[in-house]
Amino acid sequence: MTERGRTILVTGSTDGVGRWVAERLAADGARVLVHGRDRARGEAVVAAIAAGGGAATFLQADLASLAEVSRLAEAVRRETDGLDVLINNAGVGGPQTPRETSADDFELRFAVNYLAGFLLTRLLLPLLEARAPARIVNVASAGQQAIDFADVMLTRGYDGGRAYRQSKLAQILMTLDLAAELKGAGVTVNALHLATYMNTTMVRRAGVRPISTVEEGGEAILQLAASPALAGRTGLYFNGLHEARADPQAYDAAARRRLRTLSFELVGLPDPLAT
To answer: How many CA atoms lie within 13 A of 115 on its CB side?
Structure first.
């Protein structure tokens, strides 16, 4: 594949599968916007890409803060007048951890894994539409659990695994909702489960033995980001390299509407489809 001339933002790309994808895209000719929380690690990725003849810029932001998400979007706008691909890869796991909250006092996994990507995507849509045909890739998970709209922030009977699964299903609901909204705009939106227990820092910290590789997960992202076979195809969920079915709630139009309404309220943006 060749990505020459394309500008691609990969969130969470200073380590693991995000770094592998960023380096691969840069090697294929794309200009990559590398994102992470740690400047030293981010600059190391940019240096590695430059050493291989590629072009990259590091943008620092902590996605546990909606204010920083907004600043990240502004930084992207300063760097480019168009975005060819947005890969929402950043996330937090940790099923054994106690309940934590974001800078905005939202449950942390919902805030970082879902709400940050929701806001970033909304803020960057004009840049994506400017480069149509463009693509949005949401890195979700096969670990999914229906959202309890009576307690989205899981203030009662908290379980980290449930929080993670709910946040990942929220990404898929957003994917299908946004794909329908953007139909005909030249911007496709798809989600995927990369691979099971890749050899990443997140998996190792969870005390889980890896059973797949970063390369396997990275190839699945690259397929949605760049494969000609996916041109114009939108609103899909993939398990690795193969199209699959998500949790039934993803296909519940009422649930998608409820999540959409809640999400716009939480990030403080008007819903462009609201009447």
So the answer is: 32
Per-residue b/e over 18-49, b at no fewer than 16 CB within 10 Å? bbbbbbbbbebebbbbbbbeeeebbbebbebb
CA 36 to mean position of chain CA atoms: 13
The percentage of the chain sitting over the pLDDT mark of 90, rounded to a whole number, equals 88
Burial of 68 (0-12, 13-18, 19+ CB in 10 A): middle
Contact (CB, 8 A) for 9 and 35:
yes
Domain spans of the chain, in order of start: 7-267
Q: For residue 237, indicate whether it is catalytic.
A: no
Give the percent of the chain with pLDDT over 70: 91
Q: Which of 114, 158, 164, 237 is catalytic?
A: 164
CA distances from 123 to 86, 119, 139, 207 (A): 11, 6, 18, 36
- The pTM of this model reads 0.94
Closest alpha carbon to 167 in 147, 192, 151: 147
113 near 91, Cβ under 8 Å?
yes
Structure letter (DSSP) for residue 97: S
Query: pLDDT, tens digit, for every residue of 63-88?
Result: 999 999 999 999 999 999 999 999 99
CATH topology of domain 7-267: Rossmann fold (3.40.50)
Segment 153-165, tens digit of pLDDT: 999 989 999 999 9
